[in-house]
């Protein structure tokens, strides 16, 4: 099911960003005979695996549990590959318990209906807190109602990304470059993009530039009212081998009302995090699409951009105290014996989502600049699509956006002020937090 518009195959493609969107696109181009004559270059500001990239972590939830049927369909097709041919050694099917206790129950009900429509017999409704406690093996319930889907799972994100990178390298088709893109090469007289200017002053020229710079994308293109970076907290607690073995059998627990979740341990670390509204980090930068002026003055814009441990002078990531308190309280509630003062978190991080107004991805040609395609807007849920999203992106590049994603992935008709964004209904926890202000209130020390 797709809408077709004929598009010429470019002779050269430059991909900016080596995360889920960029690397999977490179993989798909390598596999697709239509692109056998196309030169493919992938540039990233960091050596692989990007130490502060959103796609690199111990674990990511792999679920078809979506309130939106197209994502359930696509996630289900991705899962078929996770189970069989796509990095299966990095995929674990331990189940996912989704709960809520407020308006987010609407998302849970819609998601339940969608997974049931897949015909699975592995879903069990959890009507009360006792059910939730028993299924998840937790001391106190998180959320009042929900369901468990035993056919959902999680993947070792870094392991799977390394696996995919190896696959891409095996084609010997992609030129990998480690450099920071300073700006797109925009010709305003012709409304075209012909590649990228790098920080060292050199350029990368291509017929088609695919911008997939994750949460940094709004630093290279004016995406105000379309995409913004939001920071989400993650904490890790070391476990003994016996604790790890015990928790590994339990489902992932995701409370959509608080946003807090726990993924079974990986490599001796239990991860507690928040799928929330996150922190914004308003940053004033030169307008990424500014035309050169005779006076040399530069227009600026203010957008939320990532601030990571690589930006910090001490190369360590501090996290607002409120984030640690929220994760600690959640852990103390579900597994009190792991949350004693003698068991501190040993690692923390802020990981950056690229949020859109509706939680839909942005996979589209730019409406003004020919030669520019944008693949971003992961909105905190794109990892699970790693086995299939590259193929979908290439279909969109060829003008064949899948029918059920038309109007969802395409360039939005209007820019909407961020305070009016509704999201996809899956986010919980505090709203409206600004990173600098939260840091001023207190930073967590590990
Ligand atoms: C805390 C957290 C938890 C998540 N949990 C889940 C989950 O459970 N399940 C799920 O499915 N998804 C989850 N996600 C979402 C998923 O991980 C992301 O949607 C996905 O990884 C985004 O990939 P990306 O390619 O857009 O970004 P990235 O992986 O960040 O890749 C962007 C790349 O662009 C590069 N780049 C940026 N600027 C430049 C520049 N100027 N020049 C050159 N290179 C540049 C960066 O170095 C980076 O490597 C989670 C995300 C986070 C942050």
From TrEMBL:
This is Sarcosine oxidase. Residues 13-394 form the FAD dependent oxidoreductase domain. It holds the Pfam family DAO. Gene3D superfamilies: D-Amino Acid Oxidase, subunit A, domain 2, FAD/NAD(P)-binding domain. Keywords: FAD, Flavoprotein, Oxidoreductase. It comes from Clohesyomyces aquaticus. Belongs to the MSOX/MTOX family. Its cofactor is FAD. One of its GO terms (molecular function) is proline dehydrogenase activity.
